[in-house]
Design goal:
By secondary structure, this protein is of the alpha+beta class. The chain is built from eight helices and seven strands, in the order αααββββαβαβαβαα. The protein folds into two domains: 38 residues, GTP cyclohydrolase I, N-terminal domain (GTP Cyclohydrolase I, Chain A, domain 1, Orthogonal Bundle); 133 residues, GTP cyclohydrolase I, C-terminal domain/NADPH-dependent 7-cyano-7-deazaguanine reductase, N-terminal domain (GTP Cyclohydrolase I, domain 2, 2-Layer Sandwich).
C-alpha cells in the first residue's frame, strides 16, 4: 500500500467533507488514517499459508476441536464501516490438527479485508477444512455492524449471526448439534 498516496487521498477527503486539514488537531490525521488502513487491510497482503506456517501437527485425535469467542474485526465492503464480534470454529480432525492460535490468525487473514460477514464465515470454514483435511468444520460468527448502528436504520442492539457447516457438520445433525451445544448456541442450520 502506498502510504503517501493514501495520506493525500485522506487529506482531500477531509477538505471535501468541509474540514481544514491544516487545523492543529488534524495536521497528522491523514497519515494516521493511512497507517490505520494499512493495518485494517493487511489481509490483502497476507496468505493463510504464511500465518499457519508449519503449525500443522500429526495427531490421532478424531474428536471435535473448538476455539470459541475469537474476536473478529472487519470492515463492511458496502460502507467501509467496521463490524465486529466473535467467531467460533470447530472441526473434526482426521490425522492433523492446527495450532490453536493459527485459527485466530486465519480469522484475521480474511477479516482484514473489505468483507461481508456471510462470505467471511464461509471463507474461514473452507480454509480450515482445506488446511487440515478435516472431516467436518463448523464456523459461527456473531457481529455488530456499525453501518446498521450509526447510519441507515440505526438499530443499536442488532446482532447478525452467520454459520457455515461443511462435511460431517453439514451432513450429520448430531455432529452439528454437538458443536452448537458446545459453543452455547442454538441455531436452525
Amino acid at each position: 500500500m502506498n502510504i503517501e498516496r493514501v495520506t493525500g487521498l485522506i487529506r482531500e477527503l477531509m477538505i471535501e467533507i468541509g474540514e481544514d486539514p491544516e487545523r492543529e488537531g488534524l495536521l497528522k490525521t491523514p497519515e494516521r488514517v493511512a497507517k490505520a488502513w494499512e493495518f485494517l487491510s493487511h489481509g490483502y497482503r497476507t496468505t493463510t499459508k504464511e500465518v499457519v506456517n508449519d503449525a500443522i501437527f500429526e495427531s490421532e485425535a478424531n474428536n471435535m476441536i473448538i476455539a470459541r469467542d475469537i474476536e473478529v474485526y472487519s470492515m463492511c465492503e458496502h460502507h467501509m464501516l467496521p463490524f465486529y464480534g466473535r467467531c467460533h470454529i470447530g472441526y473434526i480432525a482426521r490425522d492433523k490438527v492446527i495450532g490453536v492460535s493459527k485459527l485466530a490468525r486465519i480469522v484475521d487473514c480474511f477479516a482484514r479485508r473489505l468483507q461481508i460477514q456471510e462470505r467471511l464465515t464461509s471463507q474461514i470454514a473452507h480454509e480450515v477444512k482445506d488446511i487440515v483435511n478435516a472431516e467436518g468444520v463448523g464456523v459461527v460468527m456473531e457481529c455488530r455492524h456499525l453501518c446498521m448502528m450509526m447510519r441507515g436504520v440505526e438499530k443499536q442492539n442488532s446482532v447478525m449471526t452467520t454459520s457455515s457447516v461443511l462435511g460431517s457438520f453439514h451432513d450429520e445433525a448430531a455432529t452439528r448439534e454437538e458443536f452448537l451445544h458446545l459453543i452455547g448456541r442454538k441455531l436452525d442450520v
